[in-house]
Amino acid sequence: MRIGLLTEGGYPYVSGDARLWCDRLVRGLGQHEFDIYALSRTERQEDEGWIRLPPQVGRVRTAPLWTAQSDGVVYGRRARRRFAEAYGELAAAVCAGPEAGGAEVPGEGAASAAVVADRFASALYGLAELARDEAGLVDALRSESAVRALERACRAPGALRAARTARVPDLLTVAAHIERALRPLSLDWYRDDGLGSVDLCHAASGGTAALPGLLTRHFFGVPLLVTEYGVQLRAHYLAAATVEEAPAVRALLAAFHGGLAAEVYRAAALITPGNAHARRWQERCGADRAKLRTVYPGMEAERFADVGEGVEGSRCADPDTLVWVGRIEPAKDLISLLHAFAEIRKEEPKTRLRIVGAPADGPEGATYLAHCKALAAQLFPDEAEGAHAVGDNPVSFEGIGGPEIPSLAEAYASGALVVLSSVVEGFPISLVEAMFCGRATVSTDVGAVVEVIGGTGLVVPPRNPRALAEACVALLRDPERRERLGAAARARALELFTVEQNVTAFHGIYLEIVSHSPVSRVLVDDEGEPLPFGVPAEAHVPGCWTESRLMTAGRPRWAEGAPVRATVPVPVAVSVGEGA
């Protein structure tokens, strides 16, 4: 089977989202061939290069989202009219679409959400067909015509209340954002020897990453599988809350991303959320429940085997030490953790807290780390046993790779209890790692925490230092209970969250989707006549099963170019932005 793996800001680049998961998936499914179509987010990401790819990767095509040069395409009168109609419909669907809260906005006659969604999809595919016919859409999306279409849609009767207040700078901001999101429409990936030749498109996230899969399904009928371990629409909402933008900009962008998410979910053959929390978000955003299959992320359990199995030589836990592991940023709410630790010290004076991790990228992470260190110094003045001894703070901020904590497994092994204090969380990776290490945990009830823990740890409300402290004290005073919870946690992690279960699940899903999808190519004989029943079940199993020739479905016998043989692989063309 040939899989077109669609990524944004991740695999195969050295850094980025879902990089490890994609690499484990590709390496674990060596019986299939993968073509990677990757969108990069930054110039730095491209400069860092790719990871070493396995032999089953047959082709890599890349395109930048962080920049787009003028395509130099000059539209004729008919093309300009097509663009004005399609973009006008898209703008009208965005301005009449549901607001971020999900409520329908009444227009003339109260248009339903289904009608708005169909209008958005029709406009999107109209722009895609125009980009294919005219070899580009970048300049058109940046044109004055696009801004004027947005303005007309915002001033039309029944438009979003916030959209009616949009000024010219707001319209320019929205138009630029839409142009960036729709850049995949102008790519040359949608040909018979490109994405049209794959058996299945697998988008590693929703949103822009899934857009090439939408177009491949539209042009060639190739089925689309969408995996979201972090729901892109939710990520957009969270990011928008931290940026100071005009209400009109926020409303229009929320409606645009909501429309794109709804179309991705509608077109997908199956959707695989990484947990029930993501699944609920997808259902709320319009995904059909019948298409949803929860597939937990796969993690390498071997890294934590020595600690989890108590192998001799692994570092023994300090029964008086709490450990927090993660990326230091405001969403992790270390402030509440420090206040909770102050309460814990009142009950258990010997307790220590080790905060292990690096600050998030950017000035915000460094500022938050400095604030946490200042609070720790204020709450816990350095303690000394005597007048001539050096004081010691019970809270330490450490990184992985030093002499004290040479590895991630050693970080979890250094304490008896692992704590998570987040106020916003998707899939809590640090909790799964702690479970692999056989550690009892105390966590806040956010994201997929309850689903991951499953009764093998204690869960408290977020932003509640007193409850967090009471749970930690209860486990610190009961080592037998800690041991039971840790053993149960490791057993649960080995059952649900390993790489093996993840790869096995996707292997079955691939076969299921392809077996229910119509054949996009038909077999023909030497004279060009179609062969009935020419595609056996073995066609998707590696091996030379037939010497018949393939012809694209719907292609007449007199079409230019000879059909290709079924067992001849598509040659890998290496050009700028493409490699093996």
What does it look like?
- The chain is 41% helix and 14% strand.
- The chain is α/β, with parallel strands linked by helices.
- Strands 6-5-4-1-2-3-16 form a 7-stranded mixed sheet. A 6-stranded parallel sheet has the order 9-8-7-10-11-12, sandwiched between helices. A 3-stranded antiparallel sheet has the order 13-14-15, with no helix packed on it.
- Helix 9 (232-241) runs antiparallel to helix 10 (247-267) and helix 13 runs parallel beside helix 14 (363-379).
- The longest helix is centred in the N-terminal third of the chain and has 22 residues, at 113-134.
- The protein is globular.
- Mean pLDDT is 85; it is low at 99-111 and 543-580.
Straight-line distance between termini:
18 Å
Principal-axes geometry comes out as globular
Query: What is the alpha-carbon Rg in Å?
Result: 27 Å
Number of helices: 20
Mean pLDDT: 85
Strand order of the largest sheet: 6-5-4-1-2-3-16
How many DSSP-defined strands? 16
> What would you call the structural class?
alpha/beta
Please give the share of residues in helix.
Answer: 40-55%
Strand content: 5-15%
Give start-end ranges of low-pLDDT stretches: 99-111, 543-580
Note the main sheet. 7 strands, mixed
